[in-house]
Specification:
Keywords: Membrane, Transmembrane, Transmembrane helix. This is AtpZ/AtpI family protein. It comes from Arthrobacter hankyongi. The chain crosses the membrane at residues 26-43. By secondary structure, the protein is mainly α. It is 70% helix and 0% strand. The protein has 2 helices and no strands. Helix 1 (2-22) packs antiparallel against helix 2. The model has no long low-confidence stretch (mean pLDDT 87).
Length: 63
């Protein structure tokens, strides 16, 4: 969830800055949507690449 919020804030601010420079009013919305999508993608990749913990006793667990 923090990836999504961070993406929205970071890209929303970038869009807001570009809005100020270019005298537009829609880039911050596009940036926030792009950031939400990118944050979701990063969160999903983090979940897929994180090593899994063995929560129970499995084969080879002699403790």
């Amino acid at each position: 969830m923090t990836y999504v919020i961070g993406g929205i804030l970071a890209w929303g601010l970038i869009g807001w800055g570009l809005d100020s420079l270019l005298s537009t009013r829609w880039l911050w919305i596009a940036g926030a949507i792009l950031g939400a999508g990118g944050g979701y993608y990063l969160a999903r990749q983090h979940k897929l690449t994180r090593p899994r913990r063995n929560r129970g006793r499995g084969p080879g667990d002699n403790t």
